[in-house]
Amino acid sequence: MTTGRLIGGAAADAQQWAEYLRGRGEIPVEIWDRERLIEYLSPKIAIAGTTPANFLAFVGRVESDIVDDRELEKFSRVWLDGTSGALLAHGFQAALIANRFAVRDRLDLACVTALCFLRSAWAKCHGEAPTEEVLSAADFARKMFSVFCERLWQRHSVDTLDPRAFIVSHELPTAFTTYPVRCCRTIELLGLFGLLNAVMGQESATEEVVEFVAQFIAAHPGAAHPISDHWALSFLRHR
């Protein structure tokens, strides 16, 4: 069990050693690295001293793949309550929820979780000068968003610019229906990721993301047809 990662050929050597022991009928070696420890981390341990029954129930729903962005936003409103002293506990909750989404291959919702926590951090000082706790929580939220959005960004390739391949990659019967939604979510998150890189002074990374988003919009018809109750009105209001 290690809090780091096996690098170089160590991972392959460990796997071969485990297979060797298994072939001899002996107890094999199993390596638990940092990622496995994070996966097995109990929410109860991370937020010891509190009794967030609604949080544990929500994590259970995440594990069952029955949570969407609307339900996530609704749950995150509890982070708006309380003083800035509650930011630590809420930050633990946000990090654990985001990690569970990432484990379930929903990096988009992991990114949205970070944005929800960022909103709650700034809400604590609305109309006032931000405290050190608020600034620290906001910085943590931005870093969390950057980590998960970086993983989302690394997944995109030339195939992502092919509408047919992008639809088929969803591997669900509803892929054609959700196609415009996935287009809008991709533009939204990568656009914010590009802006964050620009703020952090990472100009080369910003240019890469901007170029990709521009190509994505040009390649995907679904990017021009967002699904929403009143999306058409947004254009009128913008004008």
What amount of the residues lies in strands? Answer: under 5%
Count of individual domains: 3
Gap between N and C termini, in Å? 58 Å
- The helix-and-strand class reads mainly alpha
Largest sheet: none
Helix content range of the residues, please?
A: 55-70%
- What pattern of helices and strands is seen along the backbone? HHHHHHHHHHHH
Radius of gyration: 21 Å
Secondary structure tally: strands? 0
Supply the number of helical segments: 12
Poorly predicted runs of 5 or more residues: none
Q: What is the global morphology?
A: globular
Average pLDDT, rounded to a whole number, is 82
* Quaternary structure of the protein: single chain
Task: Give structural notes.
With 239 residues, the chain is mainly alpha-helical. The longest helix has 25 residues, at 175-199. The model has no long low-confidence stretch (mean pLDDT 82). Helix 5 (69-76) runs parallel beside helix 7 and helix 8 packs across helix 10 (175-199). The N and C termini lie far apart (58 Å). It is built from 12 helices and no strands.
